[in-house]
TrEMBL record:
It comes from Epibacterium ulvae. It comes from the Bacteria. This is Uncharacterized protein.
Length: 125
């Protein structure tokens, strides 16, 4: 079992960022590798935040990964071969049976109905 944990921070400007934390103090940064299409991703950086305990992981997203499919990035500790985490880029239209798309559509319709109801209440009072 690894003593490392990974928490996502943000994804913006073609960069995914996360925080790697260690349960015990380390004298060197942890070895972290990001795999994409069964190959290590180049340009991954790890910067110390709390000496010996926390590091920020910065993963540049290659332009080839932005396409009409789901692209999975696997974050591993190569010393132990344990998976620390992963993130997925989804491109293209969502599948017809995607529950998240249905929920977003329902939210949009509910917002529209709320605005119409408030307008109706103002006009009739």
């Amino acid at each position: 079992m690894t003593d490392l944990t990974l928490a996502p921070i943000r994804f913006e400007n073609a960069r995914w960022e996360g925080r790697v934390s260690s349960r015990k103090k380390r004298s060197t940064p942890p070895a972290v590798q990001v795999m994409w299409q069964d190959a290590p991703l180049k340009g991954v950086a790890i910067e110390m935040v709390t000496p010996g305990l926390d590091w920020d992981l910065v993963v540049p997203i290659p332009s080839e990964a932005v396409c009409e499919s789901a692209e999975v990035f696997l974050i591993i500790n190569p010393e132990t071969n344990q998976t620390l985490g992963h993130f997925t880029l989804n491109g293209g239209p969502p599948p017809a049976d995607d529950l998240r798309a249905e929920v977003e559509l329902l939210r949009a319709e509910l917002d529209m109905l709320k605005r119409a109801f408030r307008r109706h209440c103002l006009e009739t009072s």
